Amino acid sequence: MPTPEQAPPPALKVFPNFQTPSTISSSAPYFVFIPVHDPWHGPLFGRLAVTSDTVPIIQGSNGKWGLREDTRESWSALEQILGRVCSAMRDICTFPIPICVRAGIPYQAGYSYTKYHTLGQARRAVIKSRDGFLPLLGHISMYFFVFKYNEDKPGCDNWRHKVCAMAGVHSDWFRELEHSVVADFTVPRIGGILDLSSPPAMANPTGGKRTDLDYLVGVILKTNLPIPLYVRWGKFEDALNIRRPKSLEEVHFILDYHEMNYLQALPGVVKFSPWSQANQQATIPNFLSSRDTHPFVLERTTSADVQESVHPPASSTPSSSTPSSSTPSSSFPPVERYSGQRAGETMSEFFARRARTNEATLAKETPQARSQRLQRETHAQRGGVPGKKGACVFVWEKVNEHYIRRSAGRQNYEDVWEEYSSSQRVYDAFRNEWDVCEAFGHPDPDDNFSETHGGGGDDDDDGEDYGVPWEEVKDDKQPLPPQISEADLDRIHDPLPLINNAPQPTVFTQTAAEVASFRFGCMMPTAKVRPEGLNLPHDKLTCKIMGDKDITLPGNAQAHNLKSFLVLAQTGMTLRNIDSALLDFHYPGSRINQVWVVDVKRVMCPKRSGFEGGLRYVVQDTDSPGPFFIVLDNAASVLEIMRRRWGPSISDIALELLRRGVTFHLCTLSEHLQQSGINAGPTTSLKSYSGMGYCSKDFKPDMRDYQGYLDFRQRFLQTPRGRVALRSGGIIARIARDALAIEDGILGPGDEVLTNGLCFWDGRTPRALWDDQLTADEIDVVCGVYHIATGAFPCLCYLTYTDRVNIGQRDPNSAQGRQVTTRSWWPRPTAFFRNSALDVGWWTPACEYFYLNRVKMYNDGILKLETAAAWKDNLKLDRKVLPYIHAIERLSAEILATLRP
Question: Which residue intervals make up region (Disordered) (predicted)?
């Protein structure tokens, strides 16, 4: 529920400025769903992120002023598509909400007009016109809310397809809309006032139908969303004059004698009584009055009363001119996910925290890490625009007097470099990130818009108010031509994912002798060690065990010894039973029996809530451990590090593991021992779907859907969170290498690791190791997972096993199960890829062959999403491979238990 400071004044006009709550009317109840804070960010709405100083106004040859043509066309396309989507959603909506009147469309406010007499007129009209998108966003948001609330009901699961078909909008454009602020109901809305004050002439104020808003208000209350609702009771003398709409009675949000007495005893003009939900987990909420012992009294306050002091950041961060949020009384805007900014954290607080973290990292920095950081700084000083796999760029935007850190989007980096001067760009070499803000410095001399255009500013305005008109819009029922939404997809999609070009191979090639020696620890004498008595694998199977079906095996005797070693390991032989001539463990001169470059500890982590249990191998610097530690759960990978003598630093080893696609954790040591858990951010009771979202049962992707997936995936991977994917190994790491530089994987855990990370603790010492981990939703984004409706189906006992696997998938982020099948562009790692014959511990040529073939198939237009069962069948390959790989791992674990007890 809202705070007392958020209570509206007693007299508020019905038609507001779209920024404060107003009385909820039957003609426009969607005002309730308008976001509190500016929604002008993201692929769809970032085009509207302009201010009076940055709006691209140009002067035509006739001397008149107007919005630049390309911007005008982009806004017009957005408005057309949103208008048709809104109309289609209204037409298919069968739920008991009022038939709403659409507010005046934005172009009527004047952004399409190009003959303004002054620059000031044009600026004001365009900004007002931009704000005219707000009621349209609220209108569509209301329908998203109602449809999502009811989509578990029979016949309600195909509404997305119906909307796209009726509006003539591509499914990928609609998917972007659903991923935007419009359908994100963790974002606070302005809410509204439900006016239940009784007219004096009303004979029976408690009887009859009070309003046609009962259904909508009731659903809002039941979902516990950040939508503040205010009930205006008016003047009352006794309980008989209390109106009790059904929607309020169901949740006990009603006025009784106790509440009446409480309100009457409060001082002030506005008598505010906050109510809250008694049980957040209840299916049907029950609201109770908070009975505040120190009630809020509406008083006048000046800006000086609420002015927050400005805390300049440390010297290693932007200059002291960096502003802080100025009005803490206003609610803090939601921070962007993956931006690194914490909820409620001002810009100065963000940079102060970063400075402390950087100082701690600097104190433990190794010479090699320092050299790499200085190289990044030297490269950044050249001032070039970051490339495809370069540094991430974040822009600080001012929203309601607060600065919010947002990803610039790699397709916009060149524009950012043109818009902001070098003094307004600050580089962080510890994280390989740029922060950009107009408050960091002064613009370049030629960037002054008014001087460049000879123009006048707002002082030359004639005083005319170009406001947003309020009038009913007559909808065009005809669907849009498909090229309109498709052309808009071309505007918002990052051109970096190359649809028609396969990625460059990144596999690390090795000879059979290198794999046998470094990975398996097998020595291959030139004479046969065991001439007879063993059922040796054939050459083809041996090559597959080595990770490459086309690898060249050594000479006859050496190949015989390699096969003998594999058979002895696979049949369960212990170290003592394997011939000393075949296993390097028995040879005193082998590298694993020499002094190791780094130290390795075996740690048995207890399995407890919030802690990752099981046996782990911790690789650390020998002399002075830190700042990072490598944690592996694969013994063969640990021994390969020693046999290849990787090092001497942890960063050196981490780079080698990254190049080979080995799964590992790059951890930091902390005394923080709180139970960890992924913080997925705010949640709602509305159903949500991971990855690419929900689709109707007849969904068949086309090239634009595939490009949309690539763009969506790219946007995530190029955030600080995306770097974790490089260390995840397997298919996740391979996909990440198409978007990120290998060096990004050694930057270490993020700022939130102690809150949201993965903890490795031995259960005894007061310190633990922490690393980031991907959430189930993030993995589904990388793999391109869709949740596709199956429709009605018979009793489960009559289905085949494959059918049960397909329909039995459940969304990890969904509150309830649903009859859906998951289909994806790539296999999920834990369920299928890591249990396949491709998973031999590193990214092999066989893995790369599978990956490149699949990419080529998609680029050639063969766009096939696979079910979980199909991936399982496709990745079985040769089932005989895995027993040998598991045997090598068992032997490696036995060796480590002996050498490092």
Answer: 303-341, 359-386, 442-481
